[in-house]
Amino acid sequence: PEYFEKPDLKSKRExxxxxxxxxxxxxxxxxxxxxxxxxxxxxxxxxHDSAGAPHLEPADDAHLPHVTLTHSGDVAMALASAxxxxxxxxxxxxxxxxxxxQFMTEGEQTxxxxxxxxxxDEAWATRYWCAKEAVGKLLRVGLQGRPKQYEVVEIQxxxxxxxxxxxxxxx
Length: 171
Known about the structure:
The chain has 171 residues and is of the alpha+beta class. It has helices at 2-5, 9-33, 100-103, 106-118, 124-138, and strands spanning 45-48, 54-57, 66-72, 75-81, 150-155, 161-165. β3 (66-72) and β4 (75-81) form a beta hairpin.
């Protein structure tokens, strides 16, 4: 029914891409988890919570994985896991620095610029954005227009970013 409520072909295709990504992630997870063949995609019913986050129905079924979704342009990617998680991606070459003031603290900007000096091909500002988005999805609340509440507090030598949610910050 949701498909037929979409106003145009572009929206319908986007919905199908998202559902396919989520169902394929769930199928792969299921096959590995239960050491079976991959179930048919129709075995999984995708729904969304009040914040728009995807989940499989019935939501209280402990046998089903947690799912998360990201999309950019014509690409959708989903993960399925026994534990909640979040994911985000952005197109390569996105000019994230042009909006850095809106989502990075001054300290984060200083840190990311320093990292870019030593590792210029790593797109650090975009990585900060994606890490914050992923944590917002993990918490099932999104960034809620306040991305500075999510702060990168640690960077591992392998480039892994640790993000803390600090709800007391207004922006």
